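Why does residue order matter? Because the sequence determines the fold. Keep that principle in mind as you read this record.
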Amino acid sequence: MATEVAQKGPATGEGAGPQRSSYSEKPGPSPRTSLLAILLLILAGLVLRVLRLQFQPLWWDEGYSVWFATHPLGQIAALTSLDIHPPLYYVLLHGWTLLAGTGPVALRLFSVAAGTLTIPAIYAAGRQMLGRRGAWLAALLLALNPLHVYYSQEVRMYGLVALLGLGSLIAAWRLLNGPEVAAPRRDERAERNALASSRRVPLGGAMVLYVVLTTAALYTQYYAAFLPLGLTIYAAWRWRRDVRSLVAWLGLQAISALLYVPWLLYATPKLIPYISNKVRQDADQPLSLFVYLGRHLSAFVAGHLEGPLAPYWPVALALVGLWLLWFALRQVGRSARSGRASRPGASDEPKAPPPASARAHKAREMAGQDRRERESALPMLVVVVLTILSSGFLVSLRYPFFPERGERLLLMGLPPFLLILAAGLERVWRRGRIWAVAGLALMSLLTAASLSAFYTVPRYPGDDYRALVARTVEQGAPGDTVLCIYPWQVGYWRSYGSPDGPSAVLAPSPDWGPALQSEVDAALRTGHLWFPAHLSGGGGTEIRVENYLGREARLFGNEWYGPGTRLSAWSAESGGAGQAATSSFLHFALPGNPLTLESAAGDAGPIPAANTVAQLTLNWRAAAPPSDLAVSVRLVDSLGRLWAQNDYQPLGVNSQAGQAQVARAGEDASSWHAQDAVGLLIPAGTPPGHYSLEVAVRPADSREALEVTGADGSRLGQSAMLFAMLVGPAGQPLGPERLPIASYHPVDLNDGLRFLGYTLDQNPTAPGEERKVTLFWQATGTPTADYKAFVQVLDGRGGLASNWEEPPGAAYATSQWSPGTLIRTQASFRPRADLADGSYSMVAGLFRPAGGQRLLTAGGADHLALGRVTVRGRVHDTTPPAPSHATDVSLGSSARLLGYDLAAPEGGYQPGASFGLTLYWQARQSSERPYAVFVHLLDEGGTIRGFGDAQPGNGRFPTTGWLPGEYLRDEHRITIDADAPPGNYRLVAGIYDPASGQRLTTPDGQDQIVLDGKLQIGGRTR
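Structure:
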């Protein structure tokens, strides 16, 4: 192969006269117009590739990319030798992270850049192989292709290898478009040289480019070897009679192979065992040839169909099949017409052109040569695509590795496939523009459907670690450790995490043993340990780690993130630091096996509000091992607002004694005892002050907590106070990343205060319904006054629809805040009962209680905009009910009881049975307080033996939203105590204020209404 040859096609002697070429193209637009057009196309492709770049979460493979790329260059080769992909992509991504960082958007922009550059590259390829119109079609198809858009966002090497492979294809086309197989006659050679004298192409640069790009592709993905294999198959056919050119081509392949051999020698001994083990673990089954080809062709046309479109990939395949069938029939018809034109008797002599048209004749000759050269590109492209697909299929038979969306492995075959598709569309365009436009329109609809699903349907929702990582950053500290069993988990933290948050480390071994145990112990010595347990595959190692931690540390966090991931948080035993507090016996009404909390001891404080873990020990007793129970330990303020919580199950799982059933001196050996050693994290931003530590227990399969009674038999509700706890200031500056801010909008205010943002449920609220909003503040200096915070909902005229006011730090006045103090404010509001449906603005701010002067922002505003609140009222029933038991009793100025329905249980009113009660109320007016309804079953001595307290309608009809005159159906469920003695009982109801316990009274001064005074328990149903 010479370093400089003329671009030549078939001989142009006899029979190749000045017929009109079907490939002749009219003069195109100016270079400036063409440049502007391609730039607009590239811009459109770029927009599609950056659109919703943060929507999809990183998944396992992307986590591996981050893991590899964040190592020093010297370690990347060693790590990737054990992986299924070579190191070049990770090396380039490593350099990219040094410039752009490791955030998910920054990482994905590298793939966006590679994917966007592929658009002008395929245009250049199409310009050489297909002509101007074919180049435009190829660039358009790639710019809109869903599969390419997909992998132009993913932090993987597939977009890069497609770009490198396309560059290799362009260089190969220049090399393969060389001398003809049969040497032309001298006169033909002279004529062809004259025609092509102005179009000689230097091939030395193409050789270097081919070797460099091919070798780079091989160092990016192992499957990239299918591309030079397909090109070599085509070269062997093209130069089957030109040994010298074929040998020169094989020499280039040998150079690429020699450059690749060092990596193969280094990686193969490690790679083969890794692949064999991976195939065995994944247990994928080989696909049939039809399904394999169908899925790839469908993906090449329509991408990975997501969500509701997923079952319809055969539709895209059918469209491709119909187009190929039509194209083949057109080609057969064209060949038949060509055969008739060349039958005997037809003149084989070219007509001599008139002298005046010599230049036009030469142009037509050049156009004919262009046509033949472009036609020769189609066989090469077809051979390349078939080789890539067939090679991938053959490999899958030996190593059946085809994961979900496995078509990505052959993405380097997408550009040549689209070039073939563009060539077909170009031919259709020349023969019938309307059919080409219809084909493009059909493909555009298919593309729009696929991309819309891609932009709206999460790809890997079960692998979304964003909330999980955010929780460790929010509640962690720089000295904390996130212990990961898998490298992709470390990659997640390195991308989503914070330098000021916990550090993610990879376990020294994926199996439990001394090395992993030593790593756990070391992490507990330096801070808190966060453990993301990946349980989808069984989680053998994860379970052993958690069991060990349950014996050696205190659990202070335990949450599920998806069906297969559990995040637990652990702190080391502190040795009983802090003040001890002990509770009296608490009894939980567990049917058939009453549960007793004998004592609770722990840190009473002051505990810094700096993600500090307060330690707590709970001692339980029961007659027999209880069923699976869930325990909730909560920190609440005087208004009942929740500030910290630790939910865990089952009860007794954290017994540091290592056993759940022991015999104590002087007690029945069959009794069950357990000691839970747990922790409660006091989150940053908790206002310093006095709180209550409460406990609740519920069956694991129920949302209803067990009823609690004290040692004296008093009913305490569904939770009980253990002891008081004092929370103190953080004592150290903390950043806003420690706060759960949903809408982060920092605004500086005067007097050394900064508003950081807020968290608000965006769902519609009903009139009278309580809606909570959390405000976040930071002290930038030392405030000089004690301010109050306000939250207001305003109607369209600026009038108040709802108002809330309270000091932002509760008892911790703003004048006590020091620079760096973080404070969370739990505010709430209730839209007026008569408020019309609509969207209302919500504002917040600070003001001086004396005089009401508001604190201004740095921009001079006296309020902070918190967005809008949608109010949507419920249906108000104005039809009088017809209860089976009629009454007519008023309670206070708010309610009137019209009657009730009683649904007796099957088998009668027996201990342990439950029955339904429906109360019918008429609203007299709305109230400022959210009253609750009580329903009590009283024995003859007045002891409560069953109750069903709840907000009206189980919270659906708060009294703050009642409109005068409306009727409300209020259903309750009462469970009779299992130890209720037989006898006559009274069923009473009433309304009370949950905050104070004060009951509304009837006109005669009674604080309850007797519904049924002769309810027989233990007898027959009346």
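The mean pLDDT is 84.
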